[in-house]
Amino acid sequence: MKLVKDNASAWETYRVAEFPNWGIEKIDRGAWYIFRQWGKERFYIYRNIDPYGKGVGKDKAIAYLKELIAEHRANIIVSA
Prior knowledge:
alpha+beta, 1 helix, globular
């Protein structure tokens, strides 16, 4: 999984190269959030890793994002 810096965002943001609607964003010092974007709306995902919604470290956010991307890939259906 390759992360690409999003220079258009006001926050420090990295998007997944293969799935640009997925990414991580640094909202505060040491507080990274995983997001998925639909149109102009971003939904922050912190189930299982951050039950209080305070953000996690970058390494932990990337590790969990890798799990979510693997799950997303496994659910893609390709017709023959």
